[in-house]
């Protein structure tokens, strides 16, 4: 291939990626809208869309002519039959889902366990579940890969889980174990960082360039950062471990004894309402209906400590938006104004004047959608037929 031909092929591939990414991130768009967004001419857009249709990555839908002048333009949508498998292992359950390129969660199972799974058990569970789905609900799907959202430190270079203390994992080669068990491309990331990515792309932080995301789960509190619109992982991919900070909240002596996730804790909330384990909606309902004074006191205590932790983070990073997910969203849901007021009272003057505190809008899907983005990353970068 000549140098000019190679250069032209590279431009074509880059444009295919642009179009696929646009409809993946923004949803169905008309050919006319894609022409406007990319600056390419109509015939080029038609050719590129046709190539993506032939590759089984997008589909063209009947045009919507309402309110439009002139000939309506066909609508290009990501093909929901292209899916990623998303996995979130936790101390009390492993959640497995199939997420479409159109971001629709087409299948989901929460497998409760008596204790944390081992890395090997996680790989076997994914392989077994995937095998059943391939002959069932996903029999007509193109499975692009597997993304795992793990509550621990994940080395970005090779997906090695350096430590996931609540799972009892140390230097676990999870990526390799799952890839070997399933034969599929596999990627691993920190759960909260993936939650931050999902909320930034599709949820509460969409459109915000400077974001702190805190996720509260069964294994504690993790976080993710978006700075100038770019996810920040740090030198090794370990940035965002807010749960390991020591808030030392004034008036809460016990908060000086442990790190944030020891004191602002899902397990303490479960104990307060008399539950051993639950998913997020069940815990939220139990807290909302509880009448024992101890429950309200525990929620108030956790809010006070959370406010101090958030103020510390805001002083360092000066975000526009803080997003809370998991049980943190549950305890904050009906107290946003007072929490923001508390953060401002403990922040440097001016740093939090325009701060917005938002709840994750992707709810239980946030970690799964984030994990799916890991699995879709290569396809979005270089679209190809199955």
UniProtKB/TrEMBL annotation:
**The organism's place on the tree of life at top rank:** Bacteria
InterPro entries the UniProt entry points to: ATPase_NBD (IPR043129), ROK (IPR000600), WH-like_DNA-bd_sf (IPR036388), WH_DNA-bd_sf (IPR036390)
Which species? Answer: Microbacterium hatanonis
Family statement: Belongs to the ROK (NagC/XylR) family.
Q: What is this protein called?
A: ROK family transcriptional regulator
